Amino acid sequence: MTVLSEGAHRAHADDAVLRALAAYKRYETHDLAVAEGQVRQFMAPGRLRTRPGHRGGVDARAFYADTGSVGVGFMGYGADVTVDRRGDSRYLGIAIPLSGHIRVLRGGEAVLARAGESIVVIAPDGPFLAEWSADCDTLMLRVTTTALAHAARTLTGARDTGRPPRFAHQVLPLDRGHAVRSAARLLAETFGRYGDVAAVPGGLLRLLSEHTLSAVLLGLDHDLATPAGPAFRAAPGRAVREAMRLVEDETTAVFNVGELARHLGVTVRALELGFRRALDETPHHYLRRIRLERAHRELLAADPVEGATVAGIASRWGFAHAGRFAASHKAAYGVSPSVSLRTSPRGDIAPTVAGAPDPIRTTGHEAGPARVLPADAGRDTRTAGRDTRTAGRDTRTAGHDVRTAGHDVRTAGHDVRTAGHDVRTAGHDVRTEGAPWRTR
């Protein structure tokens, strides 16, 4: 529930979006003329009218932020309002109702877009007429036609006609607009986390803009969406290898998929087909996978005492959403990023393999899972003759049997003790490098 200064109030179906954009408040007014002037700045010139017979003002408010090419906002009028745009606009708009509904009027027909069910595509061309219900709060995504034209050439290889792709006013079911809705939320959440667009790292802004433009062009119908010609042939193997080299040579997130395609002289679609043929994954997935590995290594090597943070490292490697980064990191490495940041850098934590047994749990301090290597059958158990402990910590098992099954298990610089438990090897090599293996 958000309370206006004059005491008027209404419930919001999605307070998370409002909280994310709270620092970007543009107006809050009961004057319809003021609201109309502000809406022109964010979307396009047009008229706002209250329903005939309505008395009093409106409870209008808006919060929005933009990068220049893409923008996102939270808007509501607090009264039944008709939006009447007579001419063209420089923007493609997507209205995503979070509560209430929008009634789009076209050719004598009305199509209803309800919260949680539909989105409204507001094309740049031609008049647009729609009615917002009094309880309708809306997540708005705005994309410039100039950015769409540039992105369409990169994405589809379409001939440079000097015009953006053409869209139609339409109401789409939410499942068809899922990619666009997710992109809008990611923009809002990222802007909210930084509190000021100017504080968002430039590389991250480029990635967000490209992601949003790709979601719009791939997720919505337009006249350049039909596959045709060389743009939809797979990029050659040498282009895929060069893209891999460019990504692996990064010391921070530099390229997005569109920039890789432009650098290599191919379209995004051709690069996607080339990656699928060569690696059975998309270039976007490859970028995220490699950067997740780099971020993980940096977390292990960093020292929080010297100011290193999970958010800073994630942002440097192009992960805008801290929660999703944490989930991806835990899925790959079995621990949260904060645990990796606190772990002494004695070696990488092996990614979790689906179906593999749970890693050995430890009590006390977390020293990270042991690295598992292929077995060297028939060898003896050896130690390198030195008792070397990592940061004065022991790694102990607590109430578990420790077994190796076809693997060579090494500990790197840790004192490994078992407390009254069985330690079994099944014909495998158990080595400690610089640390004793003790039972007691």
> How many structural domains does the protein architecture include?
3
Would you state the CATH class of the largest domain? Answer: Mainly Beta
Assembly form of the protein: single chain
Strand segment count: 23
What's the CATH topology name of the largest domain? Jelly Rolls
Global Rg: 28 Å
What's the number of helices? 12
How far is the first residue's CA from the last residue's CA?
60 Å
> What is the H level of CATH, i.e. the homologous superfamily of the largest domain?
Jelly Rolls
* Apparent shape: globular
Summing up helix and strand content along with how strands pair, one would put the structural category as alpha+beta
Largest sheet: 7 strands, antiparallel
Low-confidence stretches: 1-13, 346-440
Q: What is the residue-mean pLDDT, rounded to a whole number?
A: 75
Helix fraction by DSSP (H/I, runs of at least 4): 25-40%
Strand content: 15-25%
CATH architecture label name of the largest domain = Sandwich
Strand arrangement in the largest pleated sheet: 3-5-6-13-8-11-14
